[in-house]
Design brief:
- It is a single chain.
- With about 120 residues, the chain is α+β, with helices and mostly antiparallel strands.
- The protein has a five-stranded mixed β-sheet, with no helix packed on it. Strands 1-2-3 form a three-stranded antiparallel β-sheet, covered by helices on one side. A two-stranded antiparallel sheet has the order 4-7.
- A hairpin with a 5-residue loop joins strand 2 and strand 3.
- It is elongated.
Length: about 120
């Protein structure tokens, strides 16, 4: 049995997932909780948000995020990779900063705009 607090809506249901019974989820008040509980118990993923250095711009840092969740076990390695990247201004929202992060098929994109100076 694993216990989670669902983050799919503001209710914050306390979920219990029975791994011995085909990941049966209890404690949910909607189907989102069932989906979240099963995913957390079998393959937890996280969307990573961070910043990347920018050269020649009106700001030294640009916010970034992964386009989808990556395996929770890969988050620290992902941060090591993100921290090695530097962009050149100008940077637009949605620019791909890193393609295929850690061979996950997930990109890292910019979420802020940096003007060149």
């Amino acid at each position: 049995m694993k216990n989670f607090i669902c983050i799919m809506c503001p209710k914050g249901c306390h979920l219990t997932v029975d791994e011995t019974n085909d990941c049966k989820v209890s404690g949910h008040s909607c189907n989102k909780g069932v989906k979240y509980g099963k995913a957390e118990a079998t393959n937890p993923v996280r969307v990573v948000t961070s910043t990347i250095r920018v050269n020649g711009g009106n700001s030294y840092l640009c916010s970034v995020k992964t386009t989808d969740g990556i395996p929770k076990t890969a988050v620290l390695e992902a941060m090591k990779t993100i921290n090695t990247v530097q962009l050149q201004a100008p940077v637009n929202i949605g620019d791909v900063a890193i393609e295929n992060l850690l061979d996950t098929g997930i990109d890292v994109v910019t979420t802020s705009e940096i003007q060149a100076i």
